[in-house]
Amino acid sequence: MALLEARDVVKVYPLGESIFGGKAHGEVRAVDGVSLDIQPGETLGVVGESGSGKSTLGRLLLRLIEPTSGTIYFDGGNLTSASAGALRRMRRDMQIIFQDPFGSLDPRMRVQAILEEPLLIHERASRKARLERIRELLGAVGLDQSAAERYPHEFSGGQRQRIGIARALALRPKFIVADEPVSALDVSVGAQIVNLLAKLQHEFALTYLFISHSMPVVRYLATRIAVMYRGKIVEIGATEQITSNPAHPYTRTLLDATPEITASA
Predict the structure, then answer these.
(1) Which residues pair with 176 in a beta bridge?
(2) Most CB atoms within 10 A, among 19, 27, 58, 142?
(3) Residue (of 8, 42, 33) closest to 238 by Cα position
(4) Where are the beta strands (DSSP E) in the chain?
(5) CB 204 within 8 A of CB 192
(6) How far apart, in Å, do the first and last CA atoms of the chain sit?
(7) What is the DSSP string of 130-167?
(8) How confident is the model at residue 260 (pLDDT cuts 50, 70, 90)?
(9) Do residues 160 and 105 lie in contact, with contact meaning Cβ atoms separated by under 8 Å?
(10) Residues 172, 204 contacting (CB under 8 angstroms)
(11) pLDDT digits (tens, 9 = 90+) for 122-136
(12) Dist CA 153 CA 160 (whole Å)
């Protein structure tokens, strides 16, 4: 059984004021009738240019934003109709890694407080158990234990993204949306983060939706690839099939436009 199922999901944003004053008529269909399944333990890569709707889709699948229409099922439950209490319980198993490692961490909080916050909200663990979990999380993402007492501005971009990953892991989720987690990093640091995500997936039996504008990065990490264009999935299939024998001209354009990279160990 699929861990996550989306059926004909739509997100429409009405247009606001026009540049000439008054109201602009019409709407923007950021996500336009997307249906997909994500199996336990796999990585579904979602690739497309900026504005294609891929980040909106990721947030819809976590119900961080509300769909205009359509249905999303997570782990057998209807996410779109879940009550506030049920949604809170489901949140433990669904997390997100944000694109911007600089803006996604509260600069006023030490790393220990950042990692402890989800534990305080969702778990009734003792202080000792929470501190032990923080030590485990820092070790899992390759950070020294002394990082717990420091503030986000004291770290490099790659280290901040490791903190963001540790926060996403805090509640032992089943499913993580990684929303362009390496696009703000240089290539070598980004490759290290991609390798870390692959390692953590194996260690913690994670399922990923990995969003990127880079086909080579998605090719390296993903089990399957979904190609988005103007809010629609125009092609979806096994990574080898999509990258070796694409059926849609937009997919071929993405493959031709991005230079090949190799993730280092």
Answers:
(1) 95, 208
(2) 58
(3) 42
(4) 4-14, 27-38, 43-47, 69-74, 77-78, 94-97, 175-179, 207-212, 224-229, 232-238
(5) no
(6) 33
(7) HHHHHHHHHHHTT--GGGGGS-GGGS-HHHHHHHHHHH
(8) low
(9) yes
(10) yes
(11) 887 899 999 999 999
(12) 8
Q: Rounded to whole angstroms, what are the CA distances from 154 to 116, 143, 170?
A: 19, 13, 21
In 3-state terms, what secondary structure has residue 114? helix
Q: For residue 38, which of 167, 246, 201, 195 has the smallest C-alpha distance?
A: 201
Going by C-alpha positions, the residue among 118, 203, 129, 193 that lies closest to residue 162 is: 193
> C-alpha 141: how far from its chain's center?
17
Contact (CB, 8 A) for 193 and 161: yes
8 Å CB contact between 43 and 201: yes
Question: Quick count: other Cβ atoms within 10 Å of Cβ 110?
Answer: 16
Three-state DSSP at 176 gives: strand
Residues of the chain with pLDDT > 70: what percent?
93
pTM of the model: 0.91
| pLDDT tens readout for residues 56-82 | 999 999 999 999 999 999 999 999 999
| Residue 196: partners with Cβ closer than 8 Å, 6 or more residues away | 141, 142, 162, 165
List CB contacts of 177: < 8 A, sequence separation 6 or more.
58, 59, 61, 62, 94, 95, 96, 97, 208, 209, 211
Treating both helix axes as pointing N-terminal to C-terminal, what angle do 111-122 and 127-140 enclose, rounded to 10 degrees? 120
